[in-house]
Specification:
Order of helices and strands of chain B: HEEEEEEEEEHHEEE
Number of strands of chain A: 10
Helix content of chain B: under 10%
Distance between the termini of chain B: 58 Å
Strand content of chain A: 25-35%
Structural class of chain A: mainly beta
Shape of chain A: globular
Oligomer: heterodimer
Structural class of chain B: mainly beta
Radius of gyration of chain A: 16 Å
Number of helices of chain A: 2
Shape of chain B: globular
Strand content of chain B: 15-25%
Number of helices of chain B: 3
Distance between the termini of chain A: 15 Å
Largest sheet of chain B: 5 strands, mixed
Largest interface: A-B, 71 and 85 residues
Order of helices and strands of chain A: EEEEEEHHEEEE
Chain lengths: 175, 246
C-alpha cells in the first residue's frame, strides 16, 4: 500500500480559486438548507468552505459531470445545465459564517458534507439528515441532534456546524 | 499586554510534537494557532457502512475545464513575472492505481508572495498578468501538468516573524468522496521548512517529505522553464475500491 499524501489546511486565500457561481444551487424547486459554521468560542467562522455530495431524489449516486461547466468562448463558469443532477456543491461561508444550499431531498436520507477551513489541518466529514435513520439511532440522543436538520418553514431546513465545544457536531471517520 | 509570540516559542512547541506518528497532521496542533478553536474535541464517529454515499463521489468531465486552465502563465495579455516552472505528476490511490479523469485544482501566491485576495495585505506587489488559479483533469495514467511561476514565500501572523515557505495549494478528488484531499506542495530545499508550523504539523518526517516536490532536470525545458515532479496518493478506506476505469 502506498502512503497517502498528507493533508494541509485550505488556508484563508482559497476564495478566488475554489468557489464558483451557483456552487450551492444543486437543484431548483426542491428544498433549502442553511446554517452557520461556529468555532469553539461560539464565534462564526467566515473562512470555511463546505462541500456537499448527495444522491438524487431517487437515491442514485451516479452524479453527472458539469458542476463547473465552462463557456468555451471566455472560460467563465456557466455551471450546471439544470436538467442533469450532479450531486456536488461547494459553498464558502459568508463574512458572518453563514452558508446556504438549494437542492432536492436525497433518496437515501442524508447529504454528505466535507468541511474545510483556515485552522483546520485536515478536513472533516459530517452528514445532514433530513429525517429519521438507523445510523442516528445508534448515537446518544444529544449527539444525534447535531446531525439532524431542523425544519424552519415549508421546504427550508436549518443546519449549524459547531467545530468544537458543547454543541460540537458529530464528525465521521470512514476508517 | 502579553509579549508577542516569538519564533523561539513556536520552535519549542514544534520540537515537542516532532516525530509523532501519523500520515496526516493532527487537527489539534497548537503551534499553528488557528487550530485552537477549530478542531473537534470529541473522537470522530467511525462509519463502517458499505452503502455509505461517501464511497462514491462527484464526477467531472471535459466541460468542467478549458484547455487554457492548466497554464497559469497564459491567462492574461502579458507574461507574469517570476521563475517559469512546470509541475507534473500522477494522482494515485493507495493501491497504486491511477485516479483517472478527476479534477485537480491549484492556487498560489505570485512570485512576490502575494495572493490575489483582498484580505492579503502583505506589502508586496500584485502582478496584473498573474491570477494564480489553475485546473485540469487527470489523464488515463492519473497524470496532471501545470505551467506556472514559482510562488514567493510570504509573511503571516501566527507569531512574530512567521513566514510561509513557498507552496502551491492543491485540491484533489478521487472516485470516492472519502478520498478528498486539500494539501500544499512545497519546493525542495526551502530554508523556511523548520520554522513553519503548518508544514511541521505533519510530524512524521517521511510523511512530511511527501509534501515536497522533486526538481527533475530532464523535465526542464531549455530556454523556457524549470521542471518539478510531485506524485500524489489519495487516502481512503479499503471499501472505496471501485471498478477500474471509472
Amino acid at each position: 500500500m502506498n502512503h497517502p499524501t498528507p493533508s494541509q489546511t485550505v488556508g484563508p486565500f482559497y476564495g478566488y480559486a475554489l468557489p464558483f457561481p451557483g456552487g450551492g444551487d444543486l437543484a431548483s424547486g426542491g428544498i433549502g438548507v442553511h446554517g452557520h459554521v461556529y468555532d469553539g468560542a461560539g464565534d462564526p467562522v467566515p473562512d470555511a468552505l463546505l462541500e456537499f455530495w448527495q444522491a438524487d431524489e431517487h437515491g442514485s449516486l451516479a452524479g453527472s459531470p458539469g458542476t463547473l461547466r465552462r463557456d468555451p468562448t471566455d472560460g467563465s463558469v456557466l455551471g450546471r445545465d439544470g436538467l442533469r443532477f450532479t450531486g456536488f456543491g461547494r459553498v464558502p461561508t459568508d463574512q458572518d459564517g453563514h452558508w446556504a444550499l438549494r437542492t432536492v431531498v436525497p433518496g437515501n436520507g442524508y447529504i454528505s458534507v466535507c468541511v474545510f477551513a483556515r485552522g483546520l489541518l485536515h478536513h472533516l466529514y459530517t452528514r445532514i439528515y433530513l429525517g429519521p435513520d438507523a445510523f442516528l439511532d445508534a448515537l446518544p440522543a444529544q449527539r444525534r441532534r447535531t446531525l439532524v436538520a431542523t425544519p424552519e418553514r415549508e421546504g427550508v431546513y436549518r443546519f449549524d456546524i459547531h467545530l468544537q465545544g458543547e454543541k460540537e457536531t458529530v464528525f465521521l471517520d470512514f476508517g | 499586554m502579553s509579549e508577542p509570540l516569538k519564533q523561539a516559542d513556536i520552535d519549542q512547541e514544534i520540537a515537542a510534537r516532532a516525530g509523532e506518528h501519523g500520515e496526516h497532521p493532527a487537527r489539534d496542533y497548537a503551534p499553528y494557532r488557528s487550530t485552537l478553536l477549530r478542531h473537534p474535541h470529541r473522537p470522530l464517529v467511525v462509519v463502517k457502512d458499505p452503502d455509505a454515499a461517501e464511497l462514491s463521489g462527484p464526477v467531472f468531465g471535459v466541460t468542467d475545464v478549458t484547455t487554457l486552465d492548466n497554464d497559469l502563465t497564459k491567462q492574461h495579455p502579458g507574461e507574469p513575472l517570476g521563475e517559469r516552472i512546470t509541475v507534473r505528476g500522477r494522482v494515485l490511490d493507495r493501491q497504486g492505481r491511477p485516479v483517472r479523469g478527476q479534477l485537480v485544482e491549484i492556487w498560489q501566491a505570485n512570485a512576490s508572495g502575494r495572493y490575489l485576495h483582498q484580505r492579503d495585505d502583505h506589502p508586496a506587489p500584485l502582478d496584473p498578468n498573474f491570477t494564480g488559479v489553475g485546473r485540469c483533469l487527470t489523464g488515463d495514467d492519473g497524470g496532471y501538468l501545470f505551467t506556472t511561476i514559482k510562488p514567493g514565500p510570504y509573511p503571516w501572523r501566527n507569531h512574530l516573524n512567521a513566514w510561509r515557505p513557498a507552496h502551491i495549494h492543491f485540491s484533489l478528488f478521487g472516485t470516492a468522496f472519502t478520498q478528498r484531499l486539500v494539501t500544499q506542495m512545497y519546493f525542495p530545499g526551502d530554508p523556511l521548512f523548520p520554522y513553519d508550523p503548518i508544514m511541521q504539523s505533519v510530524t512524521d518526517e517521511s510523511a512530511r517529505q511527501r509534501l515536497v516536490a522533486g526538481y527533475v532536470h530532464e523535465l526542464s525545458e531549455p530556454e523556457y522553464s524549470l521542471g518539478y515532479r510531485w506524485d500524489i496518493v489519495l487516502d481512503g478506506p479499503a471499501g472505496t475500491w471501485m471498478e477500474e476505469g471509472r
